[in-house]
Amino acid sequence: MLKTGLNIAQFRQHVSVIEEETKEYFKAWGECGEKNLFEALSELIILTASHCLHGKEIRGLLDEKVAQLYADLDGGFTHAAWLLPGWLPLPSFRRRDRAHREIKSIFYKVIQKRRQSEEKEDDMLQTLLDASYKDGRALTDDEIAGMLIGLLLAGQHTSSTTSAWLGFFLARDKAIQEQCYAEQKAVCGEDLPPLTYDQLKDLSLLDRCLKETLRLRPPIMTMMRMARTPQSVAGYNIPPGHQVCVSPTVNHRLRDSWNEALDFKPDRYLQDNPAAGEKFAYIPFGAGRHRCIGENFAYVQIKTIWSTLLRLYEFDLINNYFPTINYTTMIHTPNNPVIRYKRRSL
Ligand code: HEM
């Protein structure tokens, strides 16, 4: 159902929406300075994802109050929420549950208005309104609101941390950053006109840089499954009730699979077989039945944001500081992610 709403026709519209949102957001950065890149990209990704995945009405309602509700909802995304029962009277759980109710009631109004409207939009909200289960039943307002929230949150931390890490890899390797800028001109034209989806697909160096960022900094470090029935995995017997974990972080660094495993080398993907033919050597988006459904959207979003940023600014590390990893957050974010930037002259 959700996959139907993440298709190429929609991505074609998303590129210009994301480019415009990025230009507008970064106006506040001015000519040059030093700013927290991760914070900025987290805010921008809420705006772009809300616009593309929720539709223009919900994006239009996104003011500071709604942003605070998202922040409260997000505040419940902690190790405590993973391990403890959701009904515990912790302040962060209460704020999360209140924000959840309030966001849903905002969404209900938009959903109702859309249901009554004569005109049909071409977006995810419309896809969910028009969808039905196998037995023919349509989705309720509550189910649609829940799915919209789920989509936003599934892509929020993953895309914002990945975008921030990509920025730091490019700032550390100025030669690659300049090649990415040159690629913008080579693919899109010297005068850098507005981006299109077809051009985005041809930005192959930027693509490889993103791919390599996801290898070295996969936002989801571990995936877990519980065995419901006795299972046998890689020669081990897993009794019912036991968990099996797979870690992209580990698989992505195995020396048997990857040459110079810890180095940022986007050109490794020019080879046919960069991971020695291992099937699960590269799994930033998971694998199997619950594999990520947002991979293509994430690529469109992050590549559009970084194309726009590379055209606007040149980025540098400050005193050669490349962020260490903050292992205390659910998704491992960069520590002190401040970057130096200077506007480019065309
Ligand atoms: C760089 C960006 C992203 C990364 C690295 C990523 C990674 C992942 C991974 C590893 C999983 C599987 C989790 C598991 O097996 O337990 C997953 C699931 C999922 N992702 Fe993403 N994701 C990203 C962006 C997005 C975006 C933008 C969306 C929405 C548009 C999204 C929607 C989902 C959903 C709905 C699932 C659950 C699928 C299911 O359970 O069947 N993701 N993601």
Can you walk me through this structure?
- The protein is mostly helical and 346 residues long.
- The chain has one domain: Orthogonal Bundle (Cytochrome p450), CATH 1.10.630.10.
- It is 52% helix and 10% strand.
- It contains 13 helices and nine strands.
- It has helices spanning 8-26, 37-54, 56-60, 64-74, 79-83, 91-116, 124-130, 141-172, 174-188, 197-202, 204-216, 248-251, 295-312; strands at 32-36, 223-226, 231-233, 236-238, 243-246, 313-316, 325-326, 333-334, 338-343.
- The chain has a three-stranded antiparallel beta sheet. A two-stranded antiparallel ribbon has the order 2-5.
- Strand 7 (325-326) and strand 8 (333-334) form a beta hairpin.
- Helix 1 (8-26) crosses helix 2 (37-54), helix 8 crosses helix 11 and helix 8 crosses helix 13.
- The longest helix is centred in the middle third of the chain and has 32 residues, at 141-172.
- The protein is globular and about 55 Å long.
- The model has no long low-confidence stretch (mean pLDDT 93).
SSE order and pairing:
Elements: H1 8-26, E1 32-36, H2 37-54, H3 56-60, H4 64-74, H5 79-83, H6 91-116, H7 124-130, H8 141-172, H9 174-188, H10 197-202, H11 204-216, E2 223-226, E3 231-233, E4 236-238, E5 243-246, H12 248-251, H13 295-312, E6 313-316, E7 325-326, E8 333-334, E9 338-343
Antiparallel strand pairs: 1-9, 2-5, 3-4, 6-9, 7-8
Helix pairs in contact: 1-2, 1-13, 2-8, 4-6, 6-8, 8-11, 8-13
Protoporphyrin IX containing FE binds next to helix 8 and helix 13.
